[in-house]
Write a structure and sequence with these properties.
This protein has about 80 residues and is an alpha+beta fold. The protein has one domain (about 5-75). The chain contains two helices and five strands. About 15% of the residues are buried.
Length: about 80
Amino acid sequence: MPAVLRSGAFRFFFYSLENNEPPHVYVESADATAKFWLDPVELARSRGFRSRDLTRLRASIIEHRHEFLAAWHAHFGESA
């Protein structure tokens, strides 16, 4: 599972065998996880994060969206 970004206690990554889904990124911190679609940036599911954390995470994903998409396409050999 390639880590794309680490920011404070948060690790942003994706799983290598999920290229059959639209581009997305997972966020993990301690016992909490969330999955966000990247186009458009939207929460797919979450476990353990508070709503204010999810709001902050969504803003961070929007800020780094192009970086996440570039990493997704580079890893899966797709053109952006």
